[in-house]
Amino acid sequence: MSEKTLPCADHGEYSMVEHLERQGVSRREFMTACSVMTATMTLPALLRSGGAEAAETAAGKAAAGAAGAGETTAWSSCVVNCGSRCPLKVVVKDGQVIRIEPENTGVDSCGTPHVRACVRGRSMRLRLYSEERLKTPMKRVGARGEGKFERISWDEAFDTIAAALKKTIDQYGNDAIYYQYGSGTYQLVAGRAPNFRLLNLLGGYLDQYGTYSSAQIREAMPYTYGSGGNGSYMTEVANAKLYLSFGNSPLNTRQSGGGKGYEWQCAKDAGGVRTILVDPMYTDSMLGKEDEWVPIRPGTDAALCEGIAYVLITENKVDQAFLDTYCVGYDEKTLPAGAPPKSDYKNYILGHGADKLAKTPAWASQITGVPVSTIVRLAHLIGDTKPLFVSQGYGVQRQANGEQSVRAIAMLPILTGNIGLPGTNTGAREGDVELGAVGLPVGKNSVKAVLPFFLWTDAIARGTEMTAKRDGIRGVDKLKAPIKFMWNYAGNVLANQHSDLNRTDAILRDEKKCEFVLVIENQMTPSARYADILLPDLMAQENFDYAADGYASGTGSFLVALQQAVKPRYEEKSSYEICRGIAKRFGLEEKFTEGRTQEQWVEWCYNETRKKNPELPDFAQFQKQGIAKMYGKGKANIALEGFRKDPVKNKLGTPSGKIEIYSARLAKIAAEWELPPGDVISPLPQYVTTWESHLDAKAAKYPLQLYGLHGHGRTHSTYHNVAWLRELHPDAVLINPVDAEKRKLKTGDAVRVFNDRGTVLLPARVTPRIMPGVVAIPQGAWYKPNGKGVDEGGCINTLTSHRPSPLAKANPQHTNLVDVAKA
Ligand SMILES: Nc1nc2c(c(=O)[nH]1)N[C@H]1C(S)=C(S)[C@@H](COP(=O)(O)OP(=O)(O)OC[C@H]3O[C@@H](n4cnc5c(=O)[nH]c(N)nc54)[C@H](O)[C@@H]3O)O[C@H]1N2
Ligand SMILES: Nc1nc2c(c(=O)[nH]1)N[C@H]1C(S)=C(S)[C@@H](COP(=O)(O)OP(=O)(O)OC[C@H]3O[C@@H](n4cnc5c(=O)[nH]c(N)nc54)[C@H](O)[C@@H]3O)O[C@H]1N2
Ligand code: SF4
Ligand SMILES: [Mo]
Fold it and tell me: Domain named 4Fe-4S Mo/W bis-MGD-type: which ranges (predicted)?
């Protein structure tokens, strides 16, 4: 791997931290040393300088079993929702975790790497021993949301929860029990699964579809391709000549030492692919690793793609044979029967469609902020370079018009025929190998109704008004009951990760609306404050379980043993034991356990996984080695390869079996659904100017576009209460010097970021890395309202809107207008 592409900040820094700490160097000295090194040296340079080399050796010694005197090592993993599940070696002395080491069973080059944990996983010890750790069951004593609790026994907790469940079921039915989105832990037996298993035994619960992560891309892409949001593996980038990526930042969001960020760098080094990143921010995935950064106004990717399409079409750079054979609706001759005349893509782009507007580079430029010359140059590159690998992150689709943008981006590989061939991709995010790891069986949910994940505050406030055609309710035409019982496991959505938190707070506080809130957590988070009963869960390092590679691991498949490194210190219980306790109150304990202990279930699940992957070692051996890596399983995956080879034999999942540029299904939905003014669903992907974009009337009052980014210092809100990380990655609002100048702001100034929904207090960070007219806040800081609508915690969701996107009814959390002023 070349020096150019391995940033100290991601992979090297923390082995230095830990090494120096072990040598007795203080945090303060470390921080200073590291920031100097990060600024000036790359990891290979560090390695040569000797410091990190020593750290590597120390880690190597521990792996070989030569830990210090009295130290033992257990295997665990960082199972938060970052998608990587990096294995961790938990070093214990005198019953206490004294440090966390990364796994090192791989090699230091591309191939079968060490799956090195990032700074977050390596600071796990601080989360384990944080002041906010929940110790005992508690019941609320103050008003809901006030955060006043009293210790109770497990018996009282189980009795209270069982009584509330019975009351809800008797009075409103199981439809009134909602299982809240919560992505805090991805362990396979004692994570979320026992909660589902219990609720299903009780007659079911209101489930959700979609996620805060990727709801829009997963909903929209199947209209084009017949199936979901994932494309070719990142390893395929090695075979491409041009990598064009929209809002994808693997070195921010796929940080693990063995995941997609790593694969990206290896692939780039192997093939020397030209790299162009389209993003409002100059991200850490750039910093010299890109050939070109194209700054773009948030929410306008579709316009850029249409401007590029205009050049491709008018300069004859489209692959007409591919479009004729594999696609529906590029031009009039492949439009489906029943589509209006001139409703095809070519006519739309050239200005002969219903809107009579040519999507010229000049038109695209005034929307996107990308210069005309850049649009034309990009179009020439895209038209002339093969293979072309187009991908996108999820930031693009976390916008009010995200469903349109994701399909518009897919048009670039489609127009140029860069589909199903080596070095190409569909325009979706890169895919992952899946081992099909088996978790605790959860049974069947008897409640038919399913809610779009983003509309739970509506389902509390106006549940019975919500319908299929207006609110995207599935399984039934209309919700039977509002949400009356909130089951919140391992999530901080209630008061942190959902939108418009001041509104959300008012809805949750009203005990007549949602009558019972159960929170099962291990930290006293903002959401935990809203619990009626608050239960302390184990953390993975105190639990016994196993985990599989995540959705950010790319081709790197592995299983990790989660071993009990330390015993719980207080009265915490695993979710399996918690749910068993509640099941007992209903006489369902035997049905819940099927006669197995949690440990026996772990072994059972592992063995089921092994049946599908016979190359895995037996359970005893797995426990001994702690990690089972199975790299290289699907290295050759190219999205739609079979379809490209034989489109008749390997039809896509669309009604026509082809790529549907024009979707008759979307035309039908557009005609039938009830949409508020301004919401557009259309059979062709098309740029739509939305509410709270820079072209909206509201921009006169709030001239800055705001979005939240997934930064290094947290996984969402998890790891927020780790002081080391707050020091290393301080929260701030990123603002361009041009916008700062107008407001007389400099870095470090305390500022207010505000709109009609609320105000957030934060320091400013003035930087040209964010484009003019746009500001960004790392998402996930803990919401801390001061009672006057001002959030002193710096949580972006004080400012975000709860209005859903048109098709997926999903979170447009990156679409916001604000202003910034000195506090
Ligand atoms: N404005 C804005 N908002 C966003 C986003 C954005 O980009 N912008 N991103 C969205 C996205 S993509 C997502 S996925 C969501 C994430 O939203 P959440 O799913 O709420 O994720 P976290 O904030 O990480 O909260 C996880 C919680 O689980 C707890 N936890 C961790 N381990 C365990 C365990 O073993 N047991 C139990 N019981 N609890 C545990 C942690 O303490 C933490 O409080 O946020 C969304 N919100
Ligand atoms: N470090 C870290 N990694 C994480 C997480 C985390 O919290 N921290 N969370 C994990 C989870 S659950 C998820 S879902 C993923 C999230 O992964 P993403 O959703 O891909 O991450 P974001 O940071 O929201 O956005 C990615 C990039 O899109 C850019 N962007 C925003 N709006 C637009 C737009 O309209 N157009 C274009 N072209 N670019 C835009 C942003 O500047 C950013 O660089 O990350 C995962 N990985
Ligand atoms: S936050 Fe993600 S990259 Fe970091 S250690 Fe955890 S799983 Fe690995
Ligand atoms: Mo996510």
Answer: 71-132
Mutate to test the pocket of ligand 1, among 127, 183, 562, 578 (most ligand atoms within 8 A of CB): 183
Same domain, 455 and 426: no
Same domain, yes or no: 121 and 138: no
* Pocket test residue of 255, 284, 710, 719 for ligand 3, highest count of atoms within 8 A of CB: 255
Same domain, 333 and 472: no
- Asked if the structure places residue 267 within a domain, the reply is yes
Look at ligand 2, atom 29, and give the residue with the nearest C-alpha.
Answer: 247
Give the residue numbers spanning the domain of 721.
Answer: 697-822
Ligand nearest the Cα of residue 710 is 2
Task: DSSP for 209-229, please give it.
Answer: ES-TTTHHHHHHHHHHHSS-S
β-pair type (388-392, 242-246) = parallel
What CATH number is given to the structural domain containing 314? 3.40.228.10
Q: What is the pLDDT of residues 193-209, one digit of tens each?
A: 999 999 999 999 999 99
Identify the DSSP state of 770: B
pTM of the entire predicted model: 0.93
Q: Residue 229 pLDDT > 70, yes or no?
A: no
Q: What is the CATH number of the domain that holds 740?
A: 2.40.40.20
Mean pLDDT of the chain: 91
Q: Quick check: 26 pLDDT over 60?
A: no
Q: Are strands 627-629 and 558-562 parallel, antiparallel or unpaired?
A: antiparallel
Q: How does pLDDT run across 473-490, given as a tens digit for each residue?
A: 999 999 999 999 999 999
Atom of ligand 1 nearest to the CA of 708: 8
Take atom 4 of ligand 3 and give the residue whose Cα is closest: 118
* Same-domain status, 469 and 403: no
Say if residue 387 is preceded by a cis peptide, omega within 30 of 0.
Answer: yes
Backbone angles phi, psi at 752, to 5 degrees: -105, 130
Residue 555 lies in a domain: no
Q: Is the CB of 256 under 6 A from ligand 3?
A: yes
